[in-house]
Write a structure and sequence with these properties.
The structure holds 2 protein chains of 2 kinds. By secondary structure, chain A is α/β, with parallel strands linked by helices. In chain A, 32% of the residues lie in helices and 27% in strands. Chain A has 9 helices and 12 strands. In chain A, the strands form 3 sheets. Chain A has a 6-stranded mixed beta sheet, sandwiched between helices. In chain A, a hairpin with a 2-residue loop joins strand 4 and strand 5. In chain A, helix 4 runs antiparallel to helix 5 and helix 5 packs parallel to helix 6. The termini of chain A are far apart. By secondary structure, chain B is mostly helical. The longest helix of chain B has 35 residues. In chain B, strand 1 and strand 2 form a beta hairpin. Chain B is globular, with a radius of gyration of 20 Å. In chain B, strands 1-2 form a two-stranded antiparallel ribbon. Classes of the chains: A alpha/beta, B mainly alpha. At the A-B interface, helix 2, strand 6 and helix 5 of A face helix 9 and helix 10 of B.
Chain lengths: 255, 326
């Protein structure tokens, strides 16, 4: 379980988020929603231990992540970053094998059998086994996103954080990625995922944390959080809910 | 991969053999072998081999290896293929200090120490300007390196323009063009501990360099202590660049291009790429130095000039024929 207590996070001298108290349940898929610049990525980086809190604490299974050395932290939580420049020519397998870094001491340079198994398992989970030798830049956006997820899986952490994994993806590729994350949750991973599409969150997430006004506007089950007042407060625009025949809801901006 | 490294080692050994054979005085293979067996021999050939050619080969190999390693470290850390060893400000700082030292009449024997100290001082200044929080900001590093190098270059130009004697201007220009003329075993032994320290630090950074290939944030998420890794890589590159600058002045091309060729040959895995860079840089520099000694004998061509004239067109040909190197 991830527990945020009175958390405040800053970017430079600006306070982005403050007074955050929230918990993310073990084995749940939590979607983090909010307008651009609301602080979603900042929150994710804080949980990943990449940004120190200005106040409060972030605990994963009772352990303060910011008190841990980098490699110990990386055994508990992995973050899949959005766009970032990669060295050209890296193969998918080399990318995924980077996830084994925290499992090695600094003098252990070579792959061990358990590393090869973990990398193979991660590639298999994201259905990229046949792409292992391909340079990462030759993959489509959807395939590349799956490769980044495999990197996080190879890290073998109980918590996986993803920053906008469906951005730039077509409907099918986005659906594949979200279905994959849903499956990972079913196998026990705790997933916290920043999304832009509220309908993706409503369809795939167990819980939603809606960010805005420098804090969390609402957090909880999708049905209770994704309602008109909360959404208008978060995005500054009125949204309507439409019930679907299967019992789910779709959110849209009326004309 | 081991085979490719072995092939590069063989290439470096062949380059050394060529360096022993090539020179102002024509020597046969047998004579050279005999001289190699007699390090304390008093014959002319023994002295040519042990006092002139062998130290030059070793110095050229160390310079080439240091520059290529330094380029590979900085390009890997910044994921920028256009970065070269002189980004750290080492060479420009050394050049400015040596120009000023020559101007105020410091004895030639004191110049290497001054160049080394000033080079490291400039690197520390660049690092201090690039510092952000407990780590280094890549963009600031490039900006600080380029800006300070320009400032130091202006000091050198000013010193040359205001020089009273042409000897002084000639000495500074020769140093800027890069040359190993007049260097001996003593120079090599003086520099070797610093180059060795640079290599040890580079070795420490191998796992982090590999992880950094996927980007800073992903590497940090995978458990890399980026701040520490950046300081180690910067310290290693500064020591390696300063070592080469003291031995040979400013030798361009190798630190920029050899990492590209090495990546094309063995990939970007630092475990293999760094030794490949060192071997390839050593081989290239040794052969280039031998040609410099021979082509206009008894005079010498500055190695920087030769490398630019031959190496750049050769690299551009490869680049345009086979596509951009990885």
């Amino acid at each position: 379980m991830i527990a945020l207590t009175n958390l405040a996070l800053t970017a430079g001298k600006r306070t982005v988020l403050a007074g955050i108290d929230a918990t993310f349940e073990r084995g749940a898929f939590t979607a983090v929603l909010g307008a651009n610049g609301a602080g979603k990525t900042t929150l994710l980086r804080g949980i990943a231990g990449l940004r120190a809190p200005a106040e409060g604490s972030i605990r994963i299974d009772g352990v303060d992540v910011h008190a841990l050395p980098a490699t110990q932290r990386a055994l508990r939580v992995a973050m899949i970053a959005a766009d970032e420049v990669v060295l050209e020519g890296l193969t998918v397998r080399e990318v995924v094998a980077t996830g084994r870094f925290p499992h090695h001491r600094w003098w252990e340079w070579n792959e061990r059998p358990q590393d090869r198994e973990a990398v193979a398992r991660a590639l298999d989970d994201v259905e990229l086994v046949d792409f292992a030798r391909r340079p990462i830049e030759t993959l489509s956006s959807g395939e590349r996103q799956r490769a980044w997820i495999a990197l996080g899986l190879a890290q073998e952490t109980p918590v996986l954080l993803l920053d906008e994994p469906t951005s730039h993806l077509d409907v099918r590729a986005a659906h594949d990625v979200l279905r994959l994350l849903r499956g990972l949750c079913a196998s026990g991973k705790t997933i916290v995922c920043v999304l832009h599409d509220v309908n993706e969150a409503a369809a795939f997430a167990d819980r939603v944390a809606l960010i805005g006004d420098g804090g969390i506007i609402a957090a909880g089950a999708c049905d209770t959080v994704l309602e008109r007042t909360n959404l208008e407060r978060a995005y500054g625009i009125a949204m309507e809910r439409a019930p679907m025949p299967d019992g789910s809801v779709r959110l849209f901006v009326p004309d | 991969m081991t085979l490719r490294l072995a092939a590069l080692l063989l290439l470096a050994l062949c380059a050394s053999a060529a360096g022993l054979l090539i020179g102002g005085t024509a020597l046969g293979g047998g004579e050279i072998l005999h001289a190699l067996m007699h390090p304390h021999g008093a014959g002319v050939v023994d002295r040519i081999v042990w006092d002139l050619r062998l130290p030059r080969i070793c110095i050229a190999a160390v310079v080439g290896a240091c520059l290529a390693l330094c380029g590979a470290l900085l390009q890997g850390m910044l994921r920028n293929p256009l970065v070269d060893p002189y980004l750290t400000g080492v060479s420009a700082g050394s050049a400015a200090a040596i120009a000023v030292a020559l101007m105020i009449g410091v004895a030639p024997a004191g110049l290497p120490a001054i160049g080394f100290g000033a080079g490291l001082g400039a690197a520390i200044l660049v690092a201090a300007l690039a510092r952000r929080g407990s780590g280094i900001d890549s963009n600031r590093l490039i900006l600080a390196g380029v800006s300070l190098s320009t400032l130091f270059a202006a000091i050198v130009t000013l010193a040359i323009v205001r020089a009273q004697s042409s000897d002084f201007a000639g000495a500074v220009v020769a140093w800027l063009a890069g040359s190993m003329a007049g260097r001996d075993w003593h120079d090599l032994w003086t520099v070797l501990p610093y180059a060795g320290a640079g290599i040890v630090l580079a070795t420490f950074s191998v796992p982090a360099l590999n992880a950094l290939r996927v980007g800073d944030v992903r590497a940090r998420s995978a458990g890399v202590d980026i701040d520490r890794a950046q300081w180690i890589i910067l310290a290693a590159s500064s020591l390696l660049a300063a070592s080469s600058v003291v031995l040979a002045g400013m030798v361009g091309f190798i630190g920029l291009i050899v990492p590209h060729i090495a990546r094309r040959l063995v990939g970007s895995d630092a475990r293999v790429m760094l030794p490949a860079c060192a071997l390839l840089g050593a081989a290239l520099c040794t052969v280039a130095d031998a040609i410099c000694r021979w082509i206009v004998a008894p005079a010498e061509l500055p190695i920087g000039v030769l490398l630019a004239f031959i190496g750049v067109p050769a690299f551009l040909y490869l680049y345009l024929r086979q596509g951009a190197p990885r």
